[in-house]
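Input record (one chain):
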Amino acid sequence: MTDLRTSRRTLLKAVGPVLLRATGLVTVQAAGAGGCARDPDAVEVVVMWSGGELGAFRAVVNEFSRESGRPVRIVPVGEQVHELLQARLDADNPPDVAVVPLPGLIKAYAREHRVMPIDPALAEGVPKDLLESVTVDGELFGLWVKAAHKSLFWYRPSTLAGTAPPGTWSDLLAIVRTMALSSRAPLSIGAADGWVVTDWFENVLAGLDGGEVYRQLARGENQWRSDVVRKALARLGEAWSIAGAFPDGPARALLTQFEESVFDVFTNDRAGMVFEGDFVAAVVERLRRAGRLPESPLVFRFPATDGPPPLVVGGDVAARMTESPGSRELIQWLARPGSLDSWIKRGGFLSPNLNTPPDRYPTPLARMLAAEIRTEKVHFDLSDQLTGRLSSSQGRGLAQILTEFFAAVSVPGGDRSALIERVQAQLADAAEWDLPRVQEARY
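The corresponding structure, as predicted from the sequence alone:
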């Protein structure tokens, strides 16, 4: 288990060029800017996954290697994906394929002619909204391989014994305030991973104003100073500033990574609930297999703010970064029906392809979540669509600004209104940096 005092970014910088060998036909290595000497028959794939997700993807591409005879070299880079890809592109040594949850980055590369178009026929069954997020000038530049339902709270049955799950934001606040007075904190949050904090913000924002401002921001419109964004930040401030909300306080939350936040609920019994996507199921399953799961989890949807409960969906998209035959074959193989069945059966995976039969999912919960992303109005993860200085990996991106907001708003006695105004100004200024590209694209 990672030392809580060490961030994932620090670890990634520390490992540098160290090579990690995996069993089978697939090699997993840490990322160097220029890349290593390459087998001309191998397919090099950059991913952001780690832990169980990386292991599941390794199993998928092992099947590809057995069928095709092509070895695959996986380069896991975590949150440093933008820096690594930029360095590799500058060195004229791009990986063959990049699988990232960042459609905004893929579109930026498409405008620079740094990724290859993909045959639209390979994306049959993928919702139009997802396809549009990686389409530039009528051409498709990414294949969606994984979806994630990101509007869930996970909890032990004993946490809400005799209490109905909250249906509204006010209900959630009431439960948090009541539980904060007990010996177990109500909420666990992996605030060391900035994407967790952005997921909170996105769910609150998607539930306001019918999601219209959310959609405007996703299109690149600078609405960060709007009353709706202010209201979303105020709602978050209400929850995050409750004394006793987090185990050992918000300072420890800022050192807690995502998986540890799940452990704090289901193994360490330090918190009652944790908010995050369907991929929590994979962490819980590992705990169950290790005999460290006292109670099977229950879930409830992120509560409504103004209107119906929000549904935020994330996902990972594969882009071809070279014209190599191996990159083409791997993309075609990932698009083939059944190619990802091993990951579906493993759990913690939802297919973005609506043609995937529901009975392939291993649990009733997975089948329910798959049905929800098929039938409800969804909002694609906002932070993953942003470009420029607001993108996840750039300078004062959304994740960093919101993490700083979490740290500040959770301190008792502060001027919350002034803090929110300052955060809105930071977000608006960061968005202004990318405005010329947005205007050019629009007009």
